[in-house]
Amino acid sequence: MSDIAAPGRREATKQANRTAILVAAREVFADLGYGAATVRDIVRRTDLATGTFYNYFPDKEAVFRALLEESARETRELVRAARRQATDLDGFVREGYRAYFGYLASDRTLFEMLRRNAGTIRALFDTPALGAGTDELEADLRAGIESGVVPPHDARYMAAAMVGAGFEIAVRMLDSDPPDVEGAVEFAASLFVGGLSNPTH
User: Fold this and answer.
1) The dihedral sign for the CA sequence 9, 14, 19, 21
2) pLDDT (tens digit, 9 = 90+) per residue, 4-32?
């Protein structure tokens, strides 16, 4: 009986260790910033040995990327759900941005991590996890064009513009305390609803 249960316990321990490292890393990157943070700083905030960290991640960049990928995946799910419920152009743009900005502002540690490390995140924009958001927005824009919700335009360029601008607006939004989610939504919506209403092909 114990032999059968052992692999399950080992898997649960591995998952708990990885989660502990990710939780600690989020706090360290939020408090110190990516540049100043070290693997030792992360390990100190766990009950794990330094060697255990390296069983899961080769360096601090790998754990930082894992955190970004996790946040990006959660954000993309919320944003896509909001866009797909839209019945008009304003809702498509506005509710997508509201889901995005609202998610970033809702978690204080994530909020601080993104605010403190915006430059590092910009440098990682070519990673698959972050690039997937642009690809998904392009697909949603094309679907919106086909359904008549979104006017015809170059979906590839528009997706790049909306994601890039959204990130930069989010960085400015996170500079204020508390973050002005509605102000950010209104600005982004005005910008892109206007642009999409008067498209150039």
Assistant:
1) positive
2) 556 788 888 899 999 999 999 999 999 99
